[in-house]
Amino acid sequence: MRSFWLLNRRFTPLWLGQSVSQLGDAIVEVTLPLWVGLLTHDPTHVALVAATEVLPYLFLGPLAGAAADRWNPRTAMMVCDLLRGVLIGSLLCVPPSVLSWYIYLVSFAIASVSSFFAPAQSVALRLVVEEGEMVRAQALSRATQSMALVLGPALGSTLLLFFGPAVGLLCDTISFGIGAASLLFIHLAHPLTNSPRPTLCLAWQALWSEIADGLRFTMKNRTLVVLLVVSGTTALVSHLWYSVDVFFVQFSLKMPQASVGLLWTISGVGGLVGSLLLLWMGKKHKLETVLLTGLFLRGASLIWYATMTSYAWAVPAALLAGLSDTVLIVALSSLMMEHTKQGMLGRVTAVLETTSALSTLLALVSVSLLKTWLSPWQLLLLCGVAVCVVCLSIAPGLRGTSLPHPSPLR
Q1: Angle CA 338–140–119, to nearest 5
Q2: Which of 57, 113, 196, 331 is the most exposed place for a label (fewest CB within 10 A)?
């Protein structure tokens, strides 16, 4: 069974269903910003869509993590998928007079629901995948996400230009339905707490106590603290890169702004290559070594990319960036699961998600402050150097960590 790439019968429907959902997400992530741009002709409104997708993670992330450790993850994921499908589908029924502000509302609501989905998905993955297969499971999930990142922009923009937003929105609505239906084929033996129903006041106190317990657990584990630093740094750098890439292509590579889409597609292909490489490697190397390798290559690829003046030489740099990003994310997620005991995974996942959201907002602020002093290539170069410095700084501490007698998964 372990030699089979789909790992086991419970992982297969979870993986396949979420793969379809990821493709739908990738289509809408292109459709919504482009649609807002066509409606308003104002880049500020496009930026607001990105902001509405980040803010819920800051306010709801800790609550979602505590809930994920209490609820059955399959039920939570099904409810989240169905709610997101309904929200996306509602955009098809709104009159044009209120459409512009309703898109922001739906974007915020979807992000709010998604903040509950991510921790529940981590808990579900822990329950269906054996500890020794976690790297391969994460690599498979990342492979399909990379494929979605390759296909999604092309499909989303094509559908929008030729058929309008309705077809893309309908595809995403259907994909969420498929994701929810696939969860019917798995059974998760999640250890729920059977306790008397408390009063609202006691329930609120217990919730905040559990959130505090999750934060204390994270901050007392040296490896998890390192992962927080890595997660925050990579999220900050990724969004800075995304924010200035169009202008870098225009001014440094002397190419039309639209050609940045090909570089993003190449980066997605690199992510797919990285996933296949990790599937082939399995656990031949320590996860700490894989993480450091991915982080260093991420910084090196940014430095390479920033110093290019030729589009042809920027392509392999983008490929390496996508590959290193996948290696880094898979190692980070697998290490988090190895160093988190049962009953804390939802809260630890939420801490990482909240850190990434904070970094995203910091990136938006940093771009507005630094653009007057630094050109796009200088900002990218600074990001690459910063990633390499972080890699060298955490290497001694990360290599010295050892797994503190992990709790049984079931």
Answers
A1: 50
A2: 196
Q: Looking at the domain covering 201-401, what would its CATH class be?
A: mainly alpha
Range list of β-strands (E), 254-319: none
Percent of the chain whose predicted confidence (pLDDT) is above 70:
87
Name the residue type at position 370: L
> d(Cα 161, Cα 309) in Å, to the nearest integer?
31
Cβ-Cβ contacts under 8 Å for 37 (sequence gap 6 or more) = 43, 45, 46
* pLDDT range class, residue 408, cuts 50, 70, 90: very low
In 3D space, the residue among 74, 87, 100, 91 whose CA is nearest the CA of residue 10 turns out to be 74
Distances (CA, A) of 161 to 31, 35, 154, 165: 10, 10, 11, 8
Per the CB < 8 A criterion, the answer to whether 104 and 240 are in contact is no
Sign of CA dihedral 253, 259, 264, 270: negative
The dotted CATH code for 1-133+148-188 is 1.20.1250
Asked if residue 178 lies in contact with residue 17, where contact means CB atoms within 8 angstroms, the answer is: yes
Q: Which residues contact 182 (CB under 8 A, 6 or more apart)?
A: 13, 14, 16, 17, 18, 20
Cα 176 to chain centroid, rounded: 17
> What are the backbone angles phi and psi of residue 72, rounded to the nearest 5°?
-70, 120
All structural domains of the chain with their residue ranges: 1-133+148-188, 201-401
pLDDT digits (tens, 9 = 90+) for 247-306: 888 889 998 866 777 888 888 899 999 998 988 876 678 889 999 999 999 999 999 999
Q: Which residues neighbour 290 within 8 Å (Cβ) at sequence distance 6 or greater?
A: 278, 327, 330, 331
Nearest by Cα to 344 from 137, 123, 74, 158: 123
pLDDT for res 200:
58
Give the pLDDT score at 404: 46
